[in-house]
């Protein structure tokens, strides 16, 4: 959520910043509500102070034999006026919150304007694999190797689901073990959060109310603040771990990672080249997350990008790092770099990690603060997240980039200790 004070003091500056996302915002009504809110608070506080003072004087006046009937009438009128003003205040505060909740984050200064056509490739790792035979699509490879059963996945869950079978399940778990091991080496704390979250969790993450239809909701009646949903990413849980808390400066930064399946509606049609595991309703992911001091967040962002990239490099897979333009960043994030892995059959790169800095946007929504050690000043924390990694595109990249002429697939060396020491997967048929 954006800072209302920043909008109040520099409305044109904020408006121009949001135009980088190709969003045009009119703050006229918001600023009128803000002015009304401040006037109501001021007038209400004056009336409450007067009511408290006179109410405290009435017993003394009665004791001195004075008639206080007129004062009692006046206090009743003031009490009624305060009640009306409190109702007006709640209404205008709800309008302000609703308006601010719908605004995206302000892009960082170094993020360029526009959509994905303005994304910038920062660096690449390795070379695109070249084959002296006709390479196969990962759907055909994993089927021939007996790694994935798509038909029974559809039978069990419908389109967009699959079943890891045999060596496929072992390979999937080897990837997760590899990611977990690396994050533990780096001193991150392992978390296993609940998969069912409440409305406030989605609100703090910035997904609600605007993107509430993108998640799988648990049917408990009408949508309200009692709504529950299945998490679309562990980020939604981790950002809420310290919701409504004040952290101490010497605790910072806090570094977490979590394993969960991710559940996505992925509404809309997708190209035929995205068949298989490239886009589905459930996939596994390790998510990294940091709570930092404001002055730490840029360094934390670089750390997360480097960690995610290092995981892909450890697998020896050709990939690129892309800096997203403002409109291509998710609404809650001020800056995002994507690590994009090469899928030969699609002749394109697909994102396996989005590394993002939300700055204080999520912390404001979740009331996540930090107390400075010396001054005792309390301010908002910064929050950052990065996939480390999502497997549903890593596995296709492995089998496509490491496929061999005889139909086998070389297993990346870092995974072999979890694959019984084998160096390759052999076709089942």
Topology:
Blueprint: H1 4-9, H2 11-18, H3 28-63, H4 69-101, E1 120-125, H5 138-144, E2 148-149, H6 150-157, E3 163-164, H7 167-185, E4 189-191, E5 196-198, H8 199-205, E6 216-218, E7 228-230, H9 234-238, E8 246-248, E9 254-263, E10 282-292, H10 297-314, E11 319-323, E12 335-343, E13 348-359, H11 361-366, E14 369-371, E15 378-380, E16 382-390, H12 394-401, E17 409-410, E18 424-425
Parallel strand pairs: 4-9, 8-14
Antiparallel strand pairs: 1-11, 2-3, 5-7, 6-7, 9-10, 10-16, 11-12, 12-13, 13-16, 14-15, 17-18
Description:
Helix content is 38%, strand content 21%. With 429 residues, the protein is an alpha+beta fold. The chain has an eight-stranded mixed β-sheet. Strand 12 and strand 13 form a beta hairpin. The longest helix has 36 residues, at 28-63. It is elongated, with a radius of gyration of 27 Å.
């Amino acid at each position: 959520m954006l800072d209302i004070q920043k909008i109040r003091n520099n409305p044109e500056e904020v408006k121009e910043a949001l135009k980088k996302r190709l969003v045009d915002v009119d703050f006229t009504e918001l600023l009128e509500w803000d002015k009304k809110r401040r006037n109501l608070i001021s007038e209400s506080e004056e009336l409450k102070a007067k009511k408290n003072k006179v109410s405290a004087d009435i017993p003394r006046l009665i004791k001195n034999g004075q008639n206080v009937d007129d004062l009692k009438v006046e206090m009743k009128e003031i009490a009624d006026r305060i009640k009306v003003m409190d109702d007006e205040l709640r209404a205008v505060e709800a309008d302000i919150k609703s308006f601010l909740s719908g605004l995206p984050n302000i892009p960082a200064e170094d993020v360029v304007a526009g959509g994905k056509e303005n994304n910038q490739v920062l660096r690449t790792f390795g070379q695109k694999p070249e084959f002296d035979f006709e390479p196969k699509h990962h759907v055909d490879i994993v089927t021939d190797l007996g790694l994935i059963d798509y038909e029974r996945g559809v039978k069990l869950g419908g389109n967009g689901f699959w079943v890891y079978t045999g060596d496929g399940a072992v390979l999937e778990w080897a990837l997760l073990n590899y990611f977990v091991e690396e994050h533990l080496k780096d001193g991150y704390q392992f978390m296993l959060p609940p998969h069912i979250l409440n409305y406030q969790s989605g609100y703090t993450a910035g997904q609600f109310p605007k993107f509430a239809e993108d998640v799988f909701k648990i049917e408990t009646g009408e949508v309200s603040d009692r709504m529950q949903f299945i998490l679309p990413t562990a980020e939604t849980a981790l950002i809420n771990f310290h919701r409504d808390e004040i952290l101490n400066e010497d605790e910072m930064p806090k570094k977490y990672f979590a394993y969960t399946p991710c559940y996505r509606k992925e509404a809309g049609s997708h190209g035929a080249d995205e068949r298989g595991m490239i886009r589905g309703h459930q996939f596994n992911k390790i998510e990294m997350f940091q709570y930092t001091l404001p002055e730490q967040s840029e360094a934390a962002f670089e750390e997360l990008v480097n960690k995610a990239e290092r995981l892909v490099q450890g697998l020896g897979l050709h990939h690129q790092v892309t800096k997203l333009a403002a409109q291509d960043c998710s609404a809650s994030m001020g800056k995002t770099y994507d690590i994009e892995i090469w899928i030969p059959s699609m002749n394109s790169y697909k994102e396996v990690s989005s590394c993002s800095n939300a700055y204080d946007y999520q912390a404001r929504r979740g009331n996540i603060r930090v107390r400075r050690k010396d001054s005792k000043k309390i301010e908002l924390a910064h929050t950052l997240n990065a996939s480390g990694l999502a497997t549903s595109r890593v596995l296709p990249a492995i089998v496509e980039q490491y496929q061999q002429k005889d139909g086998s697939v070389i297993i990346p060396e870092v995974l072999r200790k979890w694959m019984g020491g084998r160096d390759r997967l052999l076709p089942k048929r």
